[in-house]
Prior knowledge:
- With 164 residues, the chain is α+β, with helices and mostly antiparallel strands.
- It has a domain at 22-99: SH3 type barrels.
- Helix content is 19%, strand content 16%.
- It has helices at residues 5-10, 17-20, 83-99, 150-153, and strands spanning 27-32, 37-46, 57-60, 66-69, 72-74.
Amino acid sequence: MGRTPFxxxxxxxxxxxxxACHEWYEFVWWYDLSEKVEKLGRWLGPAHRKFGGGDCFYxxxxxxxxxxxxxxxPIPPDDWKxxxxxxxxxxxxxxxxxxxxxxxxxxxxxxxxxxxxxxDESGNDDIPEGPAEPDALMPGADDHTPESYDEYIGIRTxxxxxxx
Length: 164
């Protein structure tokens, strides 16, 4: 019928323009009202459900915090050629990685712990037989008959009556 399932159920065509204006996690310029300055950030998507109507967006800043703003604009082509802007983008990505993704800063090392040997001094293996999680070996769908599903859904089947 040439309509999406959403249109058929709700009776109107949804407005997806807020989702189509930027790619997810792309760099954007946004205006920080608290500092009254335009900053670079990462676009996370529209924030219309939380903040009512309007064109509000979630933006991830270099501090690792998510801001809601309605002043987002794409990076102009000239800024992609500007070395200062490119350095700013690299710095923002590094700061986000350090604050959110728990990456180890350059020059620091990680501490690794050795796992204990599963065998004790007597040579016996301490690893238990069978799966660690008993529910991990659930039977597959092909292992059941139609009647065996009744215990899962809590219904009772009755023999099929034939009508003379």
